[in-house]
Amino acid sequence: MTITCLDLEGVLVPEIWIAFAEATGIPELKKTTRDEPDYDKLMQYRIAILKEHGLGLKEIQDVIATIDPMPGAKEFLDELRAMGQVIILSDTFTEFAAPLMKKLGWPTIFCNSLVVSESGEVTGFKMRVENSKFTTVKALQSIGYDTIASGDSYNDLGMIKASKAGFLFKSTDKIKADNPEIPAFETYEELLDAIRKAIAE
Q: Residue 3 — φ and ψ, nearest 5°?
């Protein structure tokens, strides 16, 4: 049996931090895992900027409430879930994900959690496991599943390369150039066809 593992931001929904950067007018927050491979370093950077500007979880959640899935994302996900099991593997946080999962029809998501003070300040974060996407794919394989994986960023490469089939989706030119062996797609139709063929193999 095959489980398809998908990244969330940049694949099914817009990048949350970019939307927040635009809403707050803080361009430094536009940096994502497409730009910074070290997730711990990226999150420490983000937390410091939030603190500097006096912004907390509520302000981020208010922006997330305005974000809609990318055009065609829910239909793509519905079709994919009709073909087999799907898990979204994301380095986002449970405190961010729920409104987006509702708009996507409540798919299964494995993600991380924030450490938030009583005043609402984001003071840290807890990763579910280290290198969570790769680790989860290997765990699924250890209990008898084949995996297919797709994502757009540096932190997706581990799960993509470890899977029976893996695809880049709406990725950057640099990531595509650095990983020419990974098929790269720009539309849900192309990605769905590639996953369908991989499941059938």
A: -115, 130
